[in-house]
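Quick sanity check, Asparagine--tRNA ligase:
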Amino acid sequence: MVEKISIIDAPKHVDQEVQIGAWLTDKRSSGKISFLQLRDGTAFFQGVVVKGEVDDETYALVKDLRQETSMNITGVIHEDKRSHFGYEIEINNIEVVGESHDFPITPKEHGIEFLLDHRHLWLRSRRPYAIMEIRNEMIKATYDFFYNHGFLKLDPPLITDSAAEGTTELFHIDYFNKDAYLSQTGQLYEEAGAMAFGKVFSFGPVFRAEKSKTRRHLTEFWMIEPEMAFYHQEESLQLQEQYIAYLVQRVLDNCDYALKLLDRDPEILKRYTQLPYPRVTYDDAIEMLQKNGFDIKWGDDFGSPEETFISNQYDRPVFVLNYPKAIKAFYMKPHPTRDDVVICADLLAPEGYGEIIGGSERATDYDYLKQQILDHHLNLEDYQWYLDLRKYGSVPHSGFGLGLERAISWICHLDHLREAIPFPRMLNRMRP
Ligand code: 4AD
Ligand code: MG
């Protein structure tokens, strides 16, 4: 029996005869030789069929193979130094498994809307393959990092009656005749978890009814939200930069082939593993922007041109510290000596990718937090359980949220977040 392998394992089988289940992505013939571009989900490589070296029936079959025909291929693995992958298969036999006719995504260029309409098929192409490989590595690395640091994964509910990140971007649902929302953040529940288990994290989808069409916003995205009891902001910032550097390092270590397919230079990524990351206060950032011609005043939030300008001053991600209280969420810890800013930080990614992390130390004082809830016009009754956390052994604690697709876009150097998630949800798109 010939051993059945995946393409990715071809390097371990040089000069051996193997069987591979694969799809055809493209085909080229010249005289007595045909080149089949193959994929099996683990990698892409080339199969070579030589007339005279396979039986006539097999050679004739090659003519009829169409893009995305699936087949069982038997052949011998050889090195192929000219390809990204480095190996090819010299085919002895082909057995067609499923025919394919008129596959809509051809090797020519297609517009982005066409590709998104065919996302279920587009996923088979090289670029989505490379991005999903990197996404998958970052998911694995996230679990490894937090488990190695003694965290417990605590899954927050996705149906909630709270609006921790503001009331304007909520997806409303009818919950047995009561108002409920799809969760924008698991944070408040993670805070309960931190008081129960010390260090916890969540990793799941969150929902925001973003009515703006930008390259940085999805309506459904995946967030990683660690929350740590007895952590002050400083300890949280150190954890954040270690986590980001670890994510980048894991991609460098394990996604060489995917980075090549995306034409992403590993030397650039290596810079981002250098710690510590620089820090700038919101106050200083405003001054820097004003000096450089931005029409912005203290108290304004940054848009993407401002974030890009700030991050361009540094060669790695940069923390912007202590934003005005008025533009941040209600739960952030007030500054000890100033009442206009809070103890928080956003981490801005280089190369114009903007905010990838938002985090803060949390307010611990019962009365302060209660007043904040009222000042933000939130319904006190909905937050009573959250206030309880400040009633029974309240401790300093900090946490943050990383937007997975933002981080992927940055690491893969994508133009738009929609390519960082298998099936993007945006203002005008929920199919497929
Ligand atoms: O800054 P945000 O709103 O922070 C929170 O939700 C906190 N509760 C997190 C915490 O402290 N536990 O969102 C966190 C991150 C942002 O930095 C960004 O990377 C990403 O989530 N993000 C989005 N990603 C894609 N599409 C959107 N519409 C996003 N909005 C935020
Ligand atoms: Mg934010």
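Posting the structure with no commentary besides this: The longest strand covers residues 17-30.
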